[in-house]
Amino acid sequence: MDAEFREYDPFRDSEAARVLLNAVFTSAAVSPEGWARWTAQDFTAPVAIVDGQIVGAIPLFRRSYRVAPGAEVTAWVENRVGVAEPLRDQGLGSGMQAAAKQFLQGRGDVLLVYRGAERTKGYRFYEKNGLYDVSYPLAATIEPANEAAPGTRWVTQDEFLAHSALWHDIFTACYGRFGGYPARHPGYLRDIIGTVTWQEAMRQEFSYAVVEDGGRAAGYMVLGLRKDVFQVMELAVLGGSVELARRLLAAARGRGGPVRCYATHGCLLAAAVRRLGAKLPPRENGAMMLMVHVLDIASTGRKVWRDVSALRDVEVRVWTPEREGVIHSVAAPKRALAIELKEHMLARLLMRRLDVARAVAEERVTLCGDEPGDAEALSDALDPCHWVYHPIDYL
Fold first, then answer.
1. Domain range annotation of the chain
2. Which of 4, 146, 174, 305 could join 49 in a cystine, given CB atoms 3.0 to 4.6 angstroms apart?
């Protein structure tokens, strides 16, 4: 099949791309007005063209993404892969992925996608195209129950959004040591709640709960409802208090239906879910994968590297069987050091999700040109960071 792959042109491709994606994703259709607003800024897409017609598209949204405290990268987030039904499984999706990696050079650091169902063809498509898992939020289900939730109250959207700056401060205090989410600003919740994603494509009915401690607001929860399923879209409390988080979750389970809550290892919600008597499920039963492909090794490395005195005069590069690049460049290096690893490990390394010293000890990673103490210094420079996932961030 003779297909052309190129970047989306808003002046000639807008309606054709929207109609195609609506036909593929009928439960997440977007109106012409919604599409215009959705794609007005920080948007692009690879498209596939056969016989002069758009038959494939992958919407991409640019976001500043927090990898770790003090480390943010420019991520292009894949929303969905749409290919016309008669032409599926003929390489169009992979062709679009390859095109995106080309035209995004110099415009971003990583490709990122939120994905589930590891044993499916859809998941394998992303893996085949060089996107690799860096985090596994697990979807716990909290069954409905009438349980005491002292200090909590439900508020209107207007009342909730009127205190956006306060919620931003609480979020920062709760999750400041984590990575794995878009960079936040005081108006973030107002902006994301009003997006076409949540108001149209994946329309949610939002409810808002506040928990107080000592007479002052100490936490909040945004609860979504779609197709009779409740989901904790975001929850944050001062001090990372498990008890305050438990109260908010107790208020949610009192709404009369099961509540889905995503939790990652070591995060607040994992402990709060367990305190309510629920269990985190096995990965095959509802995990979300955050998958990453590194577009620009040098740019990403520069943004995530922490200054470490032992490596200050050392040029550090990475090598994989597919490519290589410098992640720590110095004007007059005294020596050079290479981290040798596979592509899937590269994604984890540069997303600060890999302990280099441990990986070297386990021979999952090798070093070339190293001296005693280098593995430990690299672990410090690329200090692994816990990630946390909030469903409200989905695009």
1. 4-108, 140-286, 295-381
2. 4
